[in-house]
Structure formats: C-alpha cells, structure tokens
Amino acid sequence: MRRPRGLAAASALIATAAVGIGLRRSLMRVRGLSMRPTLREGDLVLTVPLPPVSGDGPLHGTAWETRRRLVRPGVMVVLSEPGAREHLIIKRVTAITPDGVEVVGDDPGWSIDSRTFGSVPHRDVRRIVLGKVPLPPRR
Length: 139
Hints:
With 139 residues, the protein is α+β, with helices and mostly antiparallel strands. The protein has three helices and six strands; from the N terminus they run αββαβββαβ. It has a single domain, classed as Umud Fragment, subunit A.
C-alpha cells in the first residue's frame, strides 16, 4: 500500500533535516499516556537540545537567552523527571519563573507534573519538542 504523498514528503523532509543537521540522537519515542491527545504512546517526536546551564543562578548569559526564546508557555519540552534525573519525560510548559519551569501533561488524569512535584529547575529542561514525526498508519 502506498503512503499518501503528503505523508511521504513530510517524512522525507524531517529525515533529511535530522541527518543534515546532526539531530539523529534527537528522536524520542513517547512512553505513557500523560500527553494524550497530542502525543500517543509509541509516537516518535523530533527534539532539539537546549544549551546546558550551570547552577540555578540569575537568568543571564547566552545559554539563558537562547532558553528564554525557546522555552515559553505552550511549548512541549523534554526534562529530567524530579527524583529520577536519568529518566526523561515530555510535558507542556505552563509558566516560567526565576526559580524554575512549571509543566503539565495534556491529559491531567494521567499526568504527574508540576501540580505534584512543583517547578522544575531550569537546568533540568533538556530539549524542545519540535513535533511528531509522521509514521505510516498502524495496522
């Protein structure tokens, strides 16, 4: 069965961009139900790394400026899960404060987020989610 022309073109464009700018490691598979209906378990998303920051000091410098432009309410981000820093989760930014970033899942009934663990330190927000990678329909 042939894929729809638009889906094939979008897939090719994303794949070319990812390889062309070295983002192969930026593909991430969605696990869990907290981002439904936007993202479903098993979806593949393309992410871009944020510049690392050190400490929780004042928000200034090049890394902070880049983060301030990219991390804003409404954007989906990849962050270290509080209490399990090696585990990465995807959430949507709701607010940014000098102390951290508040995030929530799109499905509040299935999400553990800032309503439970509070603001996340700026340094724990690792990546921006650019969008879902179109995949062939599931059979």
